[in-house]
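Reopening this ticket.

The earlier resolution said the output was attached, but the attachment link was broken on my side. Pasting everything inline this time so it's all in one place.
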Amino acid sequence: MKIMNRVCAGVLACACVFSVSPVQAKGATLVKEGKTITESVKNLDQKTYKIVIKKDSYIQFKTKNCRIDSTVKGGDVQIYSSGVAPAAKGTYILEVDPNKKSGNVSFRYKIKGKIKESFKEAKKLSAANKIVFNKTYYGFLKKLMGVHYYKVDVPSAGKVKVVFGKPKKNYQENFYCFTNDQKKAVRSNIMYEPKTFHVEKGTYYFLMMDTSWTYDYQFKLKFTK
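Inline output:
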């Protein structure tokens, strides 16, 4: 199996972690986009807040004297209050943790755009989305350990290079697998640096994998003889 590449861009401070949790959302105060919530530190332990994301979107938090924590089922999903990160459609619970012992804290959020996806999610190799060379494709891995499947036809012997777009608004981490052996097209050993593959004529499979947290991605396959 030929596997490669991890691209990490942007290390942003002041992390805010949030999660989809419809059950916990009952009784929580809804925070509308753009509205600033100000609360005294002494009342925070009696407060629970929620936000509703109607479409897969980029979201940005801005906080003052606090951070926001929550736990995702199966792991932590992290966004950054000083930057922009992807968020799947759903209801999110926010737990506000003050950075001081008294006084007020505040936070607000804003939707910064819709996440672009080129295909409907292919959950099995047999349903892999067919792609072509020299075209950029977009996707969004919403679940930990998720996989998106693609396939490409190579016309003759040559080289295939995988290229990822630079993240413009968010932290991006790309793990992928490239192979022409359908039986071995599974998650396996991860390599962290770009590589050009020497290929023969045939159908090759390209798998995007989420081994850390939810994220969006964009990629392009380039072919040369």
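Reporter confirms the inline version is readable. The first strand starts at residue 3 and ends at 4. Residues 1-17, 71-76 have pLDDT under 50 and may be disordered.
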